[in-house]
Amino acid sequence: MLALLLALQAVQGPLAQRADSAVPVHDALHYDITLQIPDSGSRIVGQVEATWRIRGSAPLRVDLDSVLAVTSVQTPGRDANVGAWTRESGRIVIPQRLRVGDTLVTRIRYAGVPRAGLIFASDGVTGRTVFADNWPDRARGWFPSHDYPGDKATVAFHVEVPAGQQVRANGRRTGVDTLANGRTVWHYRMAEPIPTYTMVVGVAHFAVTTLDPAACALKCVPQSIWTYPADSAWAETVPFRRVDEMVLLFSERFGTYPYDELAHVQANTIYGGVENSGAIWYDQKAVARHTLSERTVAHEIGHQWFGDGVTEGDWHHLWLSEGFATYLAALWAEQAGGDSARAAAMQGAATAVFTSKVTERPILDFETMDLMGLLNSNNYPKGSWVLHSLRGLVGDAAFFAGMRSYYGRYRNGNALSADFAAAMNDAAGTDLTWYFLQALTQPGYPVLSVRMTQAGDSLTLRVRQVQPERWGTYRLPGVEFLAGGKLLRADVVGRETTVSFRGFDALPASLAIDPDGWWLLQSRLEPREDVE
Questions:
Q1: What are the pLDDT digits (tens) for 92-124?
Q2: What number of helices (H) and strands (E) belong to the chain?
């Protein structure tokens, strides 16, 4: 039994591998962030009171960009067990002598001009705006934290802004205070733990549209649209007109929405959309130019379940976020436009994979440490194909049961590819480890060359895998072939598979390979051959 367990662990190893550097030792539980936004300029003043659970004897290392000056570090109530703090390589280092399982509260005050993570801008149309843009590890550019996806925490914000400006942050707004000088302090609280890359604040003059709550038969989700005034009408009637249906679809398929409410925010971001938990950013230029697509909206809403609700425990498993959200956008296309719309979405994803240089690398690419470089076709369209082919392999009932189970198990927590594989194994009632190793650790995709021959009443298909040797071969159970109107299935394994079917008195006039598009593959039909 022990030998079997060790063998299973060895096989599943890559699916559970962690390759991220600078993984924190201790556990962040809560951040209470106070931030002062200036009337002009971009110098911020902040204070973060954080609660940590101690996991060992190592010092507490808190990420904060070195351009921000730390004015004080306090540890209320624990002075006897905490040493003097120092700074090193963009971190605040706090020695401690607490027991494992103890909690430590730190209060860090700081100030300065952020060089990353917080974008200040001003123009004649939108006026002055400030937006956090954290992905992947730029939260440390404006507040001290464990800036790592595997350490989620709850968060509260207290953001002081000039008179007339509004603030949108994660969670539910708990109040707005007006100070004697006319400035206001906006308070938000997120009760569920979220990753730091989704902890954001946005400051602007917004037009706010409140939508009817969505999915109330399961859990009411209040929604709102926050745009610049000139863009409000278009945003409500075009890209966001069906957000209630999206929330309902994903709630029914995977489980209830993980947060108290959902805001859709026009924002200054370097991305087309950012899946901040409960407060999604959409590129301000795309909204203003009326080019924001419903597909992007569905993608970012899908992230609320996968990426935010369940977060990859290591950056190298990013497909668990981006591949999932890409496939959820295809599921929305299927819901809104039928099978043909889903097929078009998946064909577009396949084309992106076929034309990408990164296809030479596996999805789980543990050799790269370039986090921005992980935003590639492997983690987006190819990751979505991992899910789509899995759905075709196990069927809708098992697939959606597995997705729902995975979300339920790891909601408000973290997961690796091995965790998703385990959930799908349970739902399908079979060991799919081979599939995940193939889909996630092999580069490329299968390229099939198929020859038909006919003799007597039999049709024989010779299927060769002709992709580059460095990609390896693929196991493709139940590949469909549509031969002269008859649907055939064959298990394709190794470099060459030969299979025969009775009931063909002549060579079919046509052969379609994988006609319903369940596999990420390219194919070609070799010249016809009759055998006497």
A1: 999 999 999 999 999 999 999 999 999 999 988
A2: 11, 29
pLDDT in tens, 314-327: 999 999 999 999 99
Output phi, psi for 5, to 5 deg.
-65, -45
State whether 193 and 255 are in the same domain: no
* Angle, alpha carbons 137-142-144 (nearest 5°): 75
Place of tokens 């789509």: 388
- Rounded to whole angstroms, the Cα distance separating 488 from 478 reads 9
Q: State whether 368 and 329 are in the same domain.
A: yes
Predicted pLDDT at 79: 63
Mean pLDDT value of segment 502-525: 97
pLDDT value at residue 2: 34
Residue 525: DSSP 8-state: E
Q: Which of 203, 238, 273 is the last residue of a domain?
A: 203
Q: Are 301 and 359 in contact (CB under 8 A)?
A: no
Sign, CA torsion 193/199/202/208: negative
CA dist., res. 417 & res. 314, Å (int): 10
* 460 and 423 fall within a common domain: no
pTM of the model: 0.95
* C-beta of residue 225 within 8 angstroms of C-beta of residue 208: yes
Instruction: Report the distance separating Cα 199 and Cα 101, nearest Å.
Output: 25
DSSP, residue by residue, 332-395:
HHHHHH-HHHHHHHHHHHHHHHHT-GGGGS-SS-TT---TGGGSSTIIIIIHHHHHHHHHHHH-
Domain range for 421 is: 310-441
| 296 shares its domain with 347 | no
Q: What digits encode the pLDDT tens for the residues 269-307?
A: 999 999 999 999 999 999 999 999 999 999 999 999 999
- 326-354 confidence digits (pLDDT tens): 999 999 999 999 999 999 999 999 999 99
Whether residue 327 contacts residue 357, with contact meaning beta carbons closer than 8 Å, is answered with: no
Question: CATH number of the domain that 485 lies in?
Answer: 2.60.40.1840
